Records
---
Amino acid sequence: MDRLLQSDAIDKLPVSELEAALETFLGPMLRRLPEARLREVARLVVKGILGSQSPLATQMARAVAREENKIWPMAKRFYRFAWNPRFSHRDLLKGLYGIAQCRVAQHAPSHLVVALDPLNFAKPYTEKLEGVSTVMKSTPPGPRKEERLTSGYPAMTATIVNLPEPVVSYANWFSYVTADFVSEDWEIYRWEANLVFRTPSTALAYS
């Protein structure tokens, strides 16, 4: 039976104000997408992540689809968006960095404090996924609370933490088994080499 999947309280939210805030926030990223249909899906993706608090496409679709028979078609739209050949993940990353630039410029701090966080993403039981590495994981702890080797990807994020809201200024997954990977120390060096302070009132620039 087709019913509204979300609470009636959703309909009482200030929708126009929320839409305007979302449009302003996503502006640097949306400008990097080549057409209006892709920009609309990007908005839905972000709404789905916020509504479901999950990165899973089906959960995201459930958060934005109002009728039961529209959940799977919405999830397929999200999958097509992720695999669309007209843009790459680097375009989305540059949009993410553009959001960080806008936030820093808005608050104009005298200095920036950046937290650099190397971490490992686990992909348990994965063997044939592109570029999958063997990584060490300690969270969540294993049966004996020890660190363990598992399939996954090393990753690194750099977050500016001295603003009213933290912003991501760098994010990258890499793989121990690909030709372009040298070492994790080299990834940190690359991040530092790409970090340029223009003025205290503007954000970070990345090559």
---
Amino acid sequence: MDQKSILGNKLYLSIILIIAAAAIIGIYMATNNTSPTVANGDTVDVFYTGTFTNGTVFDSNVGGQPLQFTVGSGQVIPGFDQAVLGMKLKESKTVTIPANDAYGPVNPSLIIEVPLSKFGNQSSQIKIGSVVTQQSTSGQQVHGIVTDINGGNATIDFNPPLAGKTLIFNITVENITKS
């Protein structure tokens, strides 16, 4: 063999080895994705859009500031906490959260009837849709919505506004800070 052929074969072999090494590295990286996943105790930043089952959007922070919370700390509804577990950085997913894992079912004992006379000189300002504030037995301020006025009484619902509703969230994990 002449020297030109030997150099050509060495160059060809070198190219084959480089391609093989690149393929092995690519396979290794694809099977050993080291992107962090969300676990309990991690602090996450997420973007979300919440909709009802009919498609109506009730809340979204997309285009604004991400929601930051510590997973498992009770800062968000249980179904949302569970939904982000195992998600990776920049991953998006859509989850359906039943009422029991969201704001709970409607509690009939939180719907009360109050005589309008209890509102004193403000009773004429009470209308359907008015927000009423009351102090709970634990001393916290709770808000209710007037849902009906009938016969000198106002019906006030102190349930959370999203109680009893199945919620759908599209969630994107923007940042994960490991605990």
---
Amino acid sequence: MNHQDGEMSNSSKVIDGMRIRSAEPSDAMEVANVHVRSWQAAYRGLLPDVYLDVLRAEDRSGRYDFTTTDPSNPHTIVAAGPDGAILGFATTCADRDGELANSGELCALYVDPTYWRCRVGTSLIVAARSRLIELGFRTAYLWLLDGNLRGGRFYLLDGWAPDGQSRKDTVWGVPVSESRYQRTL
């Protein structure tokens, strides 16, 4: 990762021309737009089109809580472009499943499709791993939607590997099958 622009403050860094910072309540709609647009592009063919076509950022934005500073709650970081627009986000937290004590979880990592292959995801995953390390975790896991080949390649390149665990879950009201990936931090 190129840290050419250096650190700005404890909670904000400029990496590869993007500002990586904690999400703020005013970011909710932009984060929701990224979330919805990335789902509609990445999960086409994996989730029903009729479902993806009706996703709306307005419905999603109210579900985010970017006000908490409690380290035991999920924490979201965003990558903002030079104009301040949110390009992507990552959410981390402590193990929510109760199976991997002392592990952190990468709960979400989504990049606006316009910025795929522009190092936004790489910058976010580096920052997310740093956040988990700061919280004292030495291992982490994530759940990947089965069939998400692009996501699988991305995580493999970053040192994550499937651990053989799978689950059935319901995400945004849609039943899904997911595989767990882990890595040492």
